[in-house]
Structures are given as C-alpha cells and as structure tokens.
Amino acid sequence: MNSSDVTVTAQRPTLPPVEVHKAAADQVLLTGATRTGNDRFTVAALWPGDHPLYHPDPRGFGDPTFVVESVRQAAIHLSHRFHGMDHSGDRVMVMNRIEADVAPPGLPHAGERALPVVMEITSTRTESRPSRVDMALEAEIHVEGVRHARASVRWIALPARQYAVLRRRNGAAGEAGSPLLGAGPGRKLAPEEVGRRHARDVLLAAADGLPANSWLLTMDRSHPVLFDHESDHIQGMVLLEALLQAARVTRRRSSGTAGHRDANVSSPRFAVDYTQFGEFDRPVVVTAVRGTGPEEGLVLTAAQGDRTLVRAVLADDEFQEALPC
Length: 325
Description:
By secondary structure, the chain is α+β, with helices and mostly antiparallel strands. The chain has helices at residues 65-82, 160-175, 236-254, and strands at 30-35, 40-47, 91-102, 115-129, 132-143, 146-159, 187-188, 204-206, 214-217, 268-274, 285-290, 298-304, 307-316.
C-alpha cells in the first residue's frame, strides 16, 4: 500500500483521542495509518486551517509546530497499534528528542480549509529490555502531495513502576535546586511579541533579576491546546512552545524594529533534547543565547533552578542574521 491509499479529506474522521494521548477530538491531527513494510508506515493527517493556537504568520506560511505535533502523535499511535504497547497504563511513554527541518520558504496554509498531510515513516525499536523499550521514528512530511519537511522523534516506554520511581527522584532533586536569582513577579509579554494572537497563548513573562534574553514561564493550565489533558509534569509541547516563543521575541528585538513580521520563524531547523521532568510548583526560566562553534543558531533552554529541563538549537535561513551577539 502506498501514500495514495491513505489520502485524507476534510470530511474523514480523525482517530480516537486516546490513540494519541489527547482528551479533545478536535486536537487530534491523525486520520489513519497503515504498515507498508517491516518498519515502514504511512500515516495520514489533517492540519486544520482554523487551529486555535497554530496559526499562519503574517506572510501566510503555516505554523511549523504542526510538524512536531504530527510526528509526536504518530509516535504514540504507532507504539499502541503496531509496537504492542496497549492502553492499560502498564507502560509510560517519555519523549527525549525531537528534530525537525522545514523546507524554505515555509509550510503552506489554505485559509479555513484543512490541508491533507501524508507522512512516510520508519519506526523501529532501537533497544528492548524488561526495564524499558527505546523507540526511534523518522518521517518525511508531504502536504497536498509536496514534500515540505522531515522530522524525527526518540522516545522510551517505561514500566509504570519505574516511571514512578523516576518521578519521585526528580521531585527530590528539584527541591534541592538553586533559587531563581531573586526574580520578582513576572510581567506577561504581549501576544504580538511572541507571534501569537491571544494573551492566554503567551508563555513568557519578563521579570526583574533575570539575565538578558531570559523570561519566566507562565502557564494557563485551562488552555484548551497546551493543557488538553492532565499530566504529573510540565508537558513537552508546552516547553517547546515556550522555546519557540523565546525564539520569536529574540528575533523581533534583535531586528531593531517593532513589527510583528519580524517574529517569523517560518522554516526552522531545530533539535530539542528533553533531559528532566518539569514540576508545576517551581519557577522555570526560559533563555535564548547565540550558539557558538558547531551550534550555529539560537540555543534555547528552559531550566528549573540548576536543572535544565529542555535544550534546543534552532536555526532559520532568515533568522540567522538577526541573532543577538
């Protein structure tokens, strides 16, 4: 079977939310999947034109976060459907690395019309032992038949008891973390500074006592997209959104103008490593600095005390010349 066999239309129903660890049906992007080889799969999706968070930039290019969320959902769905990880809760999936490369000038957007997406995927077990299963996924993303991006995901599936032990250790380590340099109450940034439309979408707040190009993470846990479902830690997609917002505001300020246009990050190349669980009851600082040596681009981190939760290196053909020194 090839990609034409799973071509999607705007009328085709999506998968059940439980298949991609979502609560709301309107947050499910995937519509179906089929095995095409031993470790090969074709996964179909629809990118809505009226998504409440992932909207086009002022030039009309689609939000690159769609790429990440699509492969994240694909990793979860393929794990359940084809890799023997049932919904019993005996195993917990933990993402530890995501990479994406969006081809210039950016992703298409078709107004209110949903865009059909086909992902050609290789998904394999890189290691399997009683204590954990390591998984890897590589994807080529085609929008309306045209290749626009590639992405990869690395994740592990842990027994629930082992995950509980890790969470307890993580909590104890966080309590011993260093304080936040006496940072005062945060002042939430304006939506246009971070390339979003609504105040509730903003995840960054300025605060006294923080280093340059650093912000406090501010979260509205009633947000219908970022907090679609309950979690015992700050979700990875929340942290990624905070890093991307930091990239947009950094570019906007470095460009020396106040235009919303300057917040565009339309065709990014980035690698994101998740290293620690983030706790809801402790402040998180998001920082953007210019990379050096082989890390050409913007280095973005989210840290809780002295613990780095996530680290990303982001580059963009347009973005590169506007980075802070």
